[in-house]
């Protein structure tokens, strides 16, 4: 009886574990695991969605230029916007994204405030766009001259620091 019992019992668990071969994993542990994974994925997705919204709302204003008046204005682009956008100077859709030219006419020193330029391509004009101030060619995503923009104010400081460092460096070398 005992032998038979064991023999009778042995195949049964083996069978059940075989039929559950996916079983133990999709059993309690598997369910917990998939719940945890689902939860993690859900939190991830939720965060992504939740974080994505404010970023769009916080889109920084861009500088636009009115094709009729040549005046610039700040504009907060909305997702559905297409150019031209409404210009406050004309109350019409004559606003285009302005490109910044940081060059000066007679100097290699970059400007602190750029010249804002309306691109010919935006108003279907033929030919390259030249900066009305310095005459240089202006393109979409116009590149800045070296040292232009935010770094401009730091440059004098950092170069002063460099001078100080090199001065202390040389005095250090002397000692
Ligand atoms: Zn220019």
Task: Describe what is shown at a glance.
The protein is an alpha+beta fold.
Helix amount: 40-55%
Give the overall shape, derived from the CA principal axes: elongated
Report the total helices: 5
- H and E string: HHHHEEEEEEEEH
Amount of beta strand: 15-25%
Q: List bound small molecules.
A: zinc ion
How widely separated are the two ends? 99 Å
User: What is the total domain count?
Assistant: 2
Strand order of the largest sheet: 2-1-4-3
The secondary-structure class comes to alpha+beta
Rounded mean pLDDT score: 77
- List segments where confidence is low: pLDDT < 50 over at least 5 consecutive residues: 151-175
Rg from Cα:
34 Å
Describe the structure in your own words.
The structure is a single chain. The protein has 175 residues and is α+β, with helices and mostly antiparallel strands. It has two domains: 40 residues; 90 residues, no CATH class. The chain has five helices and eight strands. The strands form three sheets. Strands 2-1-4-3 form a four-stranded antiparallel sheet, with no helix packed on it. The protein has a two-stranded antiparallel ribbon with strand order 5-6. The longest helix is centred in the N-terminal third of the chain and has 30 residues. Bound molecules: zinc ion.
């Amino acid at each position: 009886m005992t032998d038979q019992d064991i023999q009778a019992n042995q195949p049964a668990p083996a069978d059940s574990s075989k039929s559950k071969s996916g079983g133990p994993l999709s059993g309690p542990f598997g369910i917990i695991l998939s719940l945890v994974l689902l939860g993690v994925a859900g939190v991830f997705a939720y965060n992504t969605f939740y974080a994505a919204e404010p970023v769009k709302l916080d889109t920084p204003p861009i500088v636009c230029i009115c094709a009729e008046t040549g005046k610039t204005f700040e504009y907060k682009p909305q997702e559905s916007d297409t150019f031209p956008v409404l210009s406050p100077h004309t109350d019409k859709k004559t606003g285009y994204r302005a490109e910044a030219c940081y060059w000066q006419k007679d100097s290699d020193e970059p400007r602190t405030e750029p010249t804002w330029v309306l691109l010919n391509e935006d108003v279907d004009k033929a030919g390259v766009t030249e900066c009305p101030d310095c005459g240089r060619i202006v393109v979409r995503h116009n590149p800045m001259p070296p040292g232009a923009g935010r770094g401009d104010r730091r440059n004098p400081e950092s170069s002063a620091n460099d001078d100080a460092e090199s001065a202390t460096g040389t005095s250090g070398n002397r000692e």
